[in-house]
Automatic annotation (TrEMBL):
Native source organism of the sequence: Fluviicola taffensis (strain DSM 16823 / NCIMB 13979 / RW262)
MF terms (GO), sorted A to Z: transmembrane transporter activity
Transmembrane intervals: 45-69, 81-104, 110-131, 138-159, 188-211, 231-260, 272-291, 298-319
Record protein name field: Transport system permease protein
GO cellular component, one term: plasma membrane
Amino acid sequence: MWRKHLISLILFVAITLIAIGFPHGDDPWFSFLDTTNNQAWQLFVIYRIPELFIAIIAGFALSIAGLLLQTTLNNPLAGPSILGLTAGSHLMVALTIMGSSILGLEILDLGITISATIGALIFGLLILVIATRIRSMVSLLLVGMMLGTFVSAITNIILMKADANSVKAFSIWGMGSLQQVSIDQIPLISLLFLVGIGLAFSVTKPLNALILGEKPAAVLGVKVKQTRWKVIFVVSLLAGLVTAFCGPIGFIGLIVPNLVRMFYKTAQHGHLLLASGLIGSSVMVLCVLLIRIFEPIMVLPINSLTALLGAPIVLFLLLKNIHNA
């Protein structure tokens, strides 16, 4: 098992090193190491470090959030974006931006993060209640997608009443970007991320038991309801954090845990959480590389790129579950 972790780590380090050294324009690889090129160093510190940092955080957080949801709901098609948690964050951030504009208040990073987390938490609780009544994986998936569509419609109605500056700011944020984070925001993001990850690893034993089913887990001493509430809070925190600073990013939390389970072939969540984080971070850094490669031709929004990569995999998983049903 640790050999597979080593492979994942090597893959992550290799992709990250390529992303760090990838040339900008006509500059050579690792141009920031040239002490005579002050501009390259400033570009590296101001833009590249925050971009790679939030890519790693986003991939790690969304993948772990997806794994927690899939185990808790016993549904391999569950994910923060598919089940509407990201849409809930979307709505709350929209209300925060519009409300701040109307009241003439300045929007703080922590305020947006809290709004995104609350939105994800509300929809996470709603999905949890629905999941107790709907056992069909496909039905739960469809309910989550419909909730997401409903919330998107409400968000669009709110935008119709907003001023031009708020609409522009929200539209840019809504396209998703890994370039909205500054070097000064890294400590706050790191703190919230570490809290979420610490809580996630604290529920590994209950999650291992939940795989057997709710009744066997309860017999083993697991407080099922308490574990579910804790998982929803963790998922909301992690998904809300990423949505607040990157905009809505879909599919990562859905596809990565499934790929990890296929590769690792284990039910031990200590290993699955670590592997999901490493591979999720690798996928997001790979997206950064693809964005830079296509930058001379077009600017690719991160959520559009993850959709292009993830939609075929989601379709495959959906057809597979329908076939096995």
